[in-house]
Amino acid sequence: MGRWWQGAVGYEIYPRSFADANDDGIGDLAGITERLPYLEWLGVDAIWIAPFYDSPGYDHGYDVADYKAVNTIHGDLEDFSALVAEAHSRAIKVIVDIVPNHSSSHHVWFQEALKGRDNPYRDYYIWRDPALDGGPPNNWVSHFGGPAWTFDEASGQYWCHLFLPEQPDLNWTNPAVRDEFDGILRFWCDHGADGFRIDVAHGVMKDPQFRDNPQRAAITDPEDPSDVFNAFDHLYDLDQDATIEVYQRWNKVVAPYDAVLIGESNPRTIDRVAGYVREGSLHTVFYLEPAWMVWEPSALLERLEAVDISAETGVSWVIDNHDTSRSPTRFGGGDRGRHRSLAVFSFMAALGGFPFLWEGQELGLVNAEIQAIDLEDPISTRNAHGKGRDGTRSVMPWDDSHANGFCAGATPWLHAPDRMASETVAGQENTENSWLLKHRRLLLLRKTLPDLWETAAVWSDQLDGPAKALRRGDVIAIANFGDSPVAFDLPDGHWNLRFDSRFAATGSAHIGRVEVPAERTYLLSLVS
């Protein structure tokens, strides 16, 4: 018997930026509820809501001060229950974001841990004595800039934080921490959650010896956190073999609720991706590399094939999320970037698994232009040259009214120029061949062609480099990301073009051979 997420398409919502029901400039749960008819019309099967927990907001919700409380800027538990009830009435599942690698420094656990080495909560976090020179215990660096260690003067020890100092890493070797999260998972399942997107799923376990990470490249810009972080091989602070044990336990906790576990996992190598979805662990993992890539057609297709073959049905495919520059911007900008983005996502729709759209992706949005004075992301505000994430997090453009319909009269929390009418939902929902309608057709087609997700993929050896093809039952997907047309020899039979990532016109019949123009994806089905 299949699970509900098999064949589903998800949609990520950043609650601060999606819809503001109470007009205070910050998005809220009630705003999401009001927009569920749109998501039902679009054809999504599940929504993933980024953190809405009680938080001081140093990292806009990913620094959790209370895992069982709703941040008042987003509403309360009653608002969450109302959202779940309305979503379920529309056959939309609700996935909440859980942040197990770290808590907020404002969490009562950490406030207690600061009281001394003998406090019962001390071991909820990772503490180490200084190195012989008095500095940090090792060379680990933070994703957000600087060392991954902050010194506590009172106790004479450092605490570990792979992100901000205000996001201390939890100690997952402590049974008490594991018990706490069992309770947190059950709490949200009891309140109607259908699953969890697990933030930094590959980070919870650390090397027991806390060894230095090898440096693999020179640091060219010490003020750019990503340049510093990527200069190291993260052999000891991330992607430890023992991580799977945490999620095997979680799998048992959520099984009675038929809830899904989706890991944000960024293993060191492609061959380790599948390890997170084996042996009763996570149900699926986000394969994140395409969300960071610029337009590199051959490399992108090579990686998609390798991951698909190694982790069949266990991948949540994405090219956009709240942490990355929007794919049309990364893929060349303008309409060409938009066409490329849709071509990639259309091919991902044929890779099985559980693909996700990022809010506004269906509109073909490029990054918003944010002035330096308006930046909010700590990557930007705490580093001289940090490339922050604000450009992808600007408010969802619903129409051409004030703040693009995000709120009635308030100033949005993240100030950016309004989008043009042609970039909004209202401007695209009735416009033939708009980005929105093409995405909607793709999602609806995936529901009508279950071979796209329930039949094993057989990759063709006809095409290589910037073009690839695969067959799943009676469906063939051909991706040509190159700059010239490619011809593909079809198996016997009449093949109907069901989706063309560039044009609305479909339905043409093909026998023997089909030519796919440049930077396009075709989906064809066998005519019975």
Overview of this protein structure:
- The chain has 15 helices and 21 strands.
- The protein has 528 residues and is α/β, with parallel strands linked by helices.
- The chain has 3 domains: 331 residues, Alpha-Beta Barrel (TIM Barrel), CATH 3.20.20.80; 53 residues, Alpha-Beta Complex (Oligo-1,6-glucosidase, domain 2), CATH 3.90.400.10; 71 residues, Golgi alpha-mannosidase II (Immunoglobulin-like, Sandwich), CATH 2.60.40.
- Strand 18 and strand 19 form a beta hairpin.
- The chain is globular and about 75 Å long.
CATH architecture assignment name of the largest domain: Alpha-Beta Barrel
Please bin the fraction of helical residues. Answer: 10-25%
Specify the biggest β-sheet. Answer: 8 strands, parallel
Q: How many individual helices?
A: 15
Tell me the overall shape: globular
Please name the fourth-level CATH homologous superfamily of the largest domain.
Glycosidases
Radius of gyration based on Cα positions:
23 Å
Q: What is the third-level CATH name, the topology of the largest domain?
A: TIM Barrel
What class would the helix/strand composition place it in?
alpha/beta
